[in-house]
Every structure is written in structure tokens, then in C-alpha cells.
Amino acid sequence: MTDKPVKPEDLRSRKWFNNPDDPEMTALYLERYLNYGLTMEELAERKPIIGIAQTGSDLSPCNRHHMELAKRVRDGITAAGGTCIEFPVHPIQETGKRPTAMLDRNLAYLSCVESLYGYPIDGVVLMIGCDKTTPALLMAAATVNIPAIALSVGPMLNGWHKGERTGSGTIVWKARELLAAGEIDDRGFMELVATSTPSVGYCNTMGTATTMNSLAEALGMQLPGSAAIPAPYRERGQMAYRTGGRIVDMVWENLRPSDVMTREAFENAVAVCSALGGSTNAPIHLNAVARHLGVELNNDDWTRIGHDVPLLTNLQPAGEYLGEDYHRAGGVPAVVGELMAADMLPNPGALTVNGKSIGENCGDRRSISPDVIRSVDTAMLPSAGFLNMTGNLFDSAILKTSVISKEFRDRYLSNPDDPEAFEGNVVVFDGPEDFHHRIDDPATGVTENSVLVMRGAGPKGYPGAAEVVNMRPSAELLKRGVHSLPCIGDGRQSGTSGSPSILNASPEAADGGNLALLRDGDRIRIDLTKARVDVLLDDAELAERQQALEADGGYRSPPSQTPWQAIFREKVEPLAEGMVLRGAPEFRDVAGKDTPRNNH
Ligand SMILES: CC(C)(O)[C@@H](O)C(=O)O
């Protein structure tokens, strides 16, 4: 933020719409924006041009309600003296896009950078929601670094089935088990799953969407209280109006993403993520946003800052409640306030988009429903953050400790004075097709002592790093009451899954990672107290297998099916480093450096 407020003559948009040095080009730029009824007063005089980065469309049902909310955003912008220009962002729907919406995060990022940089935009409202839309837009705002504020579309209303809450995503994994165990049929599966999505909005569970929207608020990029409001509630429209008004002031204050998303803000977000029981996708996305700002943030930080933070939020999949309950309990401000009461928010002084610090915004906020958002004294778990696992199979992989069963936690994690490591036999699958084909075949040899491994599911291998490491035990084990087995993978897992998996393994099998060397029957040791995963093979055996793999042409991935898949594979970095495009983070503060050249 500069001490000097921006004056109308400094507005970036005036280089297009009111450039006294170049009247010819000014006329050219202006005339097309006049052609749908905008006036000279709105475009060329003292009003900031505010972009609305619209992620809602029929292809993106979780964000679709933004098409309605944008009307209230416009009202807020206009009332505050700005002019609105709404533009589409490449659609991303986690549950709809094949082979994975993750492939499109960087595509949406790239296109949004071009829109923000190449057009006359002074400030932008980022219409965030379904998983990848949030990081894509924050990454773009980070690169371009014009004033930006985020607005969540909000979670769906709570789902209900026979008097019980059914959470989106989370119910799918349960329904899969019921189907495999023969307790429901296909129609029962469909009906049960559909109960979890009763309205517009994104997942009502603490899946990746609610996590990322909450963290956008914890980072300071949304107005306080914005993230948790359910999509259909009246407060959502009111928040849209206020968000539209605030961005106009932010332009005059020159309050930019780099002022808000500082190292201190990321540390706060890491702590809040643990208190929420947030998704394992959060480290990927926040590491990516940080890289685009030039802020240091890595998976070790997530363990160092986050691991000892307690679980305060009793939301599925780590708990029992859903989005409406979260909002009524006070949402992000209550979580932050409870952390602050115990001196557990790393940086209360971090600035937010309303011009106040997060401490000023939330310091006196407390939970209104003490069972839904707990105090530190009544926490669901004393430590709930991620463990950054390492070993001889990968350099980094994320384990969400808040979903480890009590039995497993007591035995393998909570007793560092008498550490015990878990050992099991590997059953390895090359992608989800292989898994679904073989998991129930007795010849595969899955037992209660198995460790299920999925490879070929990372950024280069899949391509895009799909949410396919949700592996259930075999039907035979499910019928015997074994509901989960340790899982490891170089792909991702849905944030709505309560399965304690070791995910996002980097480097992936398709990028020289040692998961490619595993064979069925290998013995694996998982030592949670040391945060290590090792296959019990000596270096000579691993080297021999590596040679054999190379001689055979290396780990095989399916061919790229589209041009973007091929470009993505060539450019993408590992999940542990945010899965960004190589070279892209070098472009920083691009709007601050210069204005793009004229086009005619
Ligand atoms: C439920 C989904 C689609 O898997 C995702 O939103 C997540 O939580 O990771």
C-alpha cells in the first residue's frame, strides 16, 4: 500500500480510456465499450474500472450462483463510484471436468493474468468458490498485483437423509462402501448422494472448497465473515454488495495483493487450516499462491507452523456438522478469535482487505455454537495439522492427521517416547482403472495388513494430479468390518474424504519418483513420529530396479489427449512446490512495472 492515495489521473484504465498523449488510440479503445451503453462519464472520467472475474457458468454448478451475486457486486461498485466490467474466467468444476479440474487451475490462472493485465482494469473482484477457482484467481491477482478482493459463492445448505446430515463428497465415500458391501443398490447410491447437494453453492463439508474459501479469508483477501455464509442466505447477497463497494476504496488506497498476502498472512492461513481440519489440497494451492508473490512457503512450514494447532471446527469429514452450522457458529472470525484467545494465531497484525488487521477484525469474536467451533480448551484434537512425510520413496508427501482414527493415533503418533512404526505389505495400482479392476479380485491379495499405493496419478502422470487416491478396502474386507487401509499416492485425494492417506507424493512416479519402483509384496514402514515412509529395500535393490525401469523405457503414462495436456506436462512443477508452471512465478507485480503495448 502506498502512503499516497491514488488520484483519478493515476488510474491504470486512463491509459486506455483517457490518454491525452494518444487520442487516436483512446478513441479506438473507448468506442467498443460505449457500444453497449456505457457512457463517457463511466469510462473516461474519474471512475475506477472494476473487473468482476466471473467463475460462474452452467459448466460450473458450484460457482453458478455467482451469476446472481455479480448483480449485487455491481450495485456495490456503482454505489461506491466505480464502473463494472464483468468477464468470464475459464470454467473449472471439480466434479465435472475430466481427467481432472486440477489440470485447469493453471490454465485459468494464465487466462486471468492476461485479462487483468491486458485490459483497462483498476481493481478486481475475484468470484471464488469451487476448489480450483480460488487458487487460480488468487494466483492471477498475485502476479498482476492490482487491488483485488475475493468473494466466496458460499457453501450449499446442509444435506439431510433420514434425520442425519449428509455432507457433499463425504457421503460419496461412505456410499461407495455401502454399495461394495451390498447394503445399497445403484439407485440407493444415487439417492443417498443426491441428498447432500440441496441447493446452489459448493461442498457443505470442510472439503477443499470450504477450506480454500476459509483460507482466502484467513489470508486477508475477503471481508471478515464472508467465507462461511451459505450461498442461498440473504447475507451472501449483502456481502456481495459490501465487497463491490470495498474494492473501489481499495483502488483509491492502492491496497494490493502483495500488501495483504505477506509471509505473515500465509502463516496465519496455515494455522487456521489446522484448526479447520482443512483439505490436503490446501498446501498445494497456498504454496502456489505464495510462489507467485515471491513469498517463501513450503511443506515443512505446514508441519512446523500447523502441526501443533488444535482442531477447533467440528465439520465433516473430521467431525460431524456442515456449512450452515459453521456459519451460525461464527465462521472464520470465530475460529480466528478462538485461536487468538489462546495466543495461537501467529500474526494478528497481518493486514486484510478492509484495511484493518486480522486481529482487529476477529480478536473479540468467539464461537456462538461451542460444539461446532470449539475453544482451544475444548478442542476436538490437541494437534491437527499436516505431517510432511519424507523417506526413500519420495521427498515430500502430506498426511492429514485430523482424520487419523483414535486407535491409530494413540498407537503410532501420540506416543513419541515409545515410538512404534506401522509396517505393511504393498499392493500397488497404476492409476484408478487398475485399482477398480483389481481391488475386489482375491488374486490381488489385499489383506488387513496391506498398504494400498496409487501411482501414475500426479501432475505429469495423470495428467493434472487427479483426486483418485481415495482407495477403499476390498469388498471382502469391508464385509468383515475393515473400513480403511493406509493409502499412499502421487495423486490427490478429495478434501471431503476422511481417509488418512499419504498424498501428493513428490516427485511422482512419472517424474523419476521411487514410487515407480514398488512391486506388490514389498514391505513398507510408516513412522509417524519421524514423519517417514520407507520401503524396506536396500539402496542396491532400488538402484537395480531403477536400471531395469530405464531399460524398459521408464514409467509409462497415457499419451496427452489435448494440446494443453501436452504443454502442461512439459512445464509443470511437482505438487509439493505448488504445481505451478515453470517460469511463471518469475513474473511479479506485472501491472506495476509497465502497461502493455498498444494493439493497433
Ligand atoms: C468434493 C471434491 C469435488 O472432491 C472437492 O471439492 C474436494 O473437497 O476436494
The fraction of residues assigned to DSSP E strands is 5-15%
- The total of beta strands comes to 14
Instruction: List low-confidence stretches.
Output: none
The major beta sheet can be summarized as:
8 strands, mixed
User: Whole-number radius of gyration?
Assistant: 24 Å
Q: Globular, elongated, flat, extended or rod-shaped: what is the shape?
A: globular
Looking at the structure, the CATH topology of one domain is Glucose Oxidase, domain 1
In terms of structural class, how would the helical and strand content be classed? alpha/beta
What is the end-to-end distance? 34 Å
Mean pLDDT metric:
96
Helix content: 25-40%
- Output the CATH class name of one domain: Alpha Beta
Ligands, deduplicated: (2R)-2,3-dihydroxy-3-methylbutanoic acid
Give the count of helical stretches. Answer: 23
CATH homologous superfamily descriptor of one domain: IlvD/EDD C-terminal domain-like
The assigned CATH architecture of one domain is: 3-Layer(bba) Sandwich
Main-sheet strand order equals 11-10-9-13-14-7-8-12
GO molecular function: dihydroxy-acid dehydratase activity; iron-sulfur cluster binding; metal ion binding
Family: Belongs to the IlvD/Edd family.
Organism: Halovulum marinum
EC number: 4.2.1.9
